[in-house]
Design brief:
Layout lengths: L1 H30 L5 H28 L5 H6 L8 E2 L2 E7 L4 E7 L10 E5 L4 E4 L1
Antiparallel strand pairs: 1-2, 2-3, 3-4, 4-5
Helix pairs in contact: 1-2
Length: 129
């Protein structure tokens, strides 16, 4: 009788675990700004690229004492990120006190992805629909 209850306990725990896992998978794609898995993967890649560019910008500032344009980061081999990840294109906006790396979506995308994502010198993201 003890083995039956042990087996039922394992089945119940596995069921609860699978339920929690499925809810997490749904919420992770929703947190990326869409319920479309392909679009969620694309947004995750764009955010990764933005972090990479922002980190390179911070390294450039530590070395040179000023913020660099996107072209300067590429020419000085600080980044190897492409200028775009379709349908997004990247640009760097600099000032004497900071920078903002911006990814802008071209065209109208029906997948629910944000039109614009950006990250600043404090590594804070901003999303615009």
């Amino acid at each position: 009788m003890g083995r039956v209850f042990g087996f039922l306990g394992v089945v119940i725990v596995l069921s609860i675990g699978m339920y929690v896992y499925s809810r997490q998978a749904q919420s992770s794609s929703a947190a990326a700004g869409t319920n479309n898995p392909k679009a969620a993967i694309n947004i995750t890649g764009v955010k990764s690229d933005l972090i990479s560019i922002a980190t390179s910008e911070r390294r450039y500032y530590a070395t040179e004492g000023k913020y660099a344009s996107f072209d300067e980061l590429i020419s000085n081999n600080y980044i190897t990120v492409a200028r775009q990840r379709p349908p997004y294109t990247y640009e760097v906006e600099t000032s004497s006190s900071g920078f903002r790396v911006v990814a802008t979506r071209s065209g109208d995308d029906g997948s629910g992805t944000p039109a614009r994502l950006s990250v600043d010198e404090n590594m804070e993201f901003e999303v615009s629909q």
